[in-house]
Amino acid sequence: MTVNGRPVKQSVSPHLRLLDFLREELHWTGSKEGCGAGECGSCSVFVDGVLMKSCLMPVAKAQHSEIETIEGLEEQGKLNVLQQAFQKTGASQCGYCIPGMMMAATAALRANPYAGREEIKERLGGNICRCTGYQKMFEATELARDVMNGKLTIELLKEEKEEGPFIGSNSFRIDTSSKVTGALKYAGDMVMPQMLHMQVLRSPYPHAEILELDTSEAEAMAGVEAVVTHRDVQGIDGFGVFTDDQPVLARGKVRYVGDAIAAVAAEDVLTAKEALKKIKVRYRELVAITKTEDAIKTGAVIIHDDVPDNIVMHIPIRKGNVDKGMAEADFVIEETYYTQPVEHAYLEPEAGLAYLDADGTLVIQSPSQNITHHRQKLAKILDMPVNRVRMIMSPVGGGFGGKEDMHYQGILALAVLKSRRPVRYVFTREESIIASAKRHPFSIKYQLGLNREGLIQASKIHMLADAGAYNCSTEGVMRKAAILAAGPYAIENLMVDAIGVYTNNTPSGAMRSFGAMQSQFATECHLDLCAEKLEMDPVELRRKNFFKEGDETHTRQELGSVSMLEVFNSALDLADWETGISNSRGATRSDLAQSGNRPPCTLGARQFPLETISTGQAA
Ligand code: FES
Ligand code: FES
């Protein structure tokens, strides 16, 4: 075959995927693996001019083909027009999807140099981006199209150098060039001489005692350099964002499906996988708790011995006299709301490369969102001075809070210290979903007492959150959920309980908004429900109850200045709220079908001609 115009001749297993051949054998790491299942498009390459997902193609099928990867798009060492357009529009954030997206956009313009927005959308439809919302990618492709067709000049793609402050000016992101060329190295792209590959044995049970763990057969296998278990931990075995309740590798017990038990570092991934099969684990299954209500029942199975009530964190807030407030209310309206666990689905699965540097310092490169914290934890776990542990944050291919936890860096460290060789570990998408923390699912019992005018007299909010098997960020999430539970509304009599409990589900951790989303969802749904019961415009109900200057928050800070009403009114104006009919909810109302009426609520985003500041945040 040829790759980017260069002939390539190599003997490999015919079953090897084209993606692995390009990345692991030829070290063209621009093409990324996001899913390994043909869904995300991050591995897209051209095979004989046809856009293909290289994770689905055996290399044998491409053996006489011309392959083009992202690295082949540059023209004479310079960004091509499309790459410049992506740079100009700021179409990349974390950048992990960008190589695949560039290939799809290239395919779109090759197929139809005059493609319109809808066709571009259609042709980029096989590629997933978790960060950008796609609009800038469509804009970039249109911009490139118009420059290529001579409708716009190439000068337009240059950076506008502006004097003065950065805020409000249109600067290029300094890392865009490496993202649009595929040159940026994420942890899974990194290699070192003598590097081993790690695989992890994970629990098939949600809750079980480990009666026996025998790694001798795996250790004896050719190509295996190290097998690590909890027995290799020299220091204090435990990590977490708030409490150190998670062992690096299961210690006598597994607490969720996916809990790490042992790991193998071997010459290649296949050998490491084979060795995992040789590890013998004898389990005694325990009753698993999968519902939060069951976790707090008297006599419930205990998940962590030192937490007999299974309560990770309880944050109460008390203000005024809720019973009196409810008794004096004209209406008391109750409902229970549920939110589900949410997978972060960052396009870059977890990965890390660890090694000992020339001075014997342990170095770990991974897309960790919390390197200082992880460094301290690792030093304690490994019983090493903190200055002998170095964490380097590799480019983060999307995090959204999900890479704050140290789920695998400790295992990598153990494997390096045992093998004395560099070790790399790259999660599969399946492993990422099984093993990493999710957004906390909540059940929220909401009780609101109101008078006839719609003024809130009292509020009682009881939130039960599923922390899963380990604390991770539960403590912080409970604090935030409790503080924000009652929303931006002045309430004299308030009782909030935010309780995070252990279960045998996948751990819950940090995710964007950190507990606020769940409580706000319940609050705003409940206000809509109350408005309906009171036959009042939901907008008016909110206006009546907003905090005002001089009010005290639910946690007793005096508010010196409150702009809630202005912000709310501006949002309503921009949404043309008042042109719709009042008090309409849901999609089933027949009056919604009439022209000019307010459309039903849908999840999504609307664009308004507002000036916005983009932070380019992806992590
Ligand atoms: S489509 Fe190939 S990695 Fe996702
Ligand atoms: S920029 Fe697309 S996944 Fe992050």
TrEMBL record:
Residues 1-73 form the 2Fe-2S ferredoxin-type domain. The keyword Iron-sulfur does not apply. Keywords: Iron, Metal-binding, Oxidoreductase. SUPFAM superfamilies: 2Fe-2S ferredoxin-like, CO dehydrogenase ISP C-domain like, CO dehydrogenase molybdoprotein N-domain-like, Molybdenum cofactor-binding domain. InterPro entries: 2Fe-2S-bd (IPR002888), 2Fe-2S-bd_dom_sf (IPR036884), 2Fe-2S_ferredoxin-like_sf (IPR036010), 2Fe-2S_ferredoxin-type (IPR001041), 2Fe2S_fd_BS (IPR006058), Ald_Oxase/Xan_DH_a/b (IPR000674), Ald_Oxase/Xan_DH_a/b_sf (IPR036856), Ald_Oxase/xanthine_DH-like (IPR016208). PROSITE patterns: 2FE2S_FER_1, 2FE2S_FER_2. Pfam families: Ald_Xan_dh_C (PF01315), Fer2 (PF00111), Fer2_2 (PF01799), MoCoBD_1 (PF02738). Belongs to the xanthine dehydrogenase family. One of its GO terms (molecular function) is 2 iron, 2 sulfur cluster binding. The lineage of its organism: unclassified sequences, metagenomes, ecological metagenomes. This is 2Fe-2S ferredoxin-type domain-containing protein.
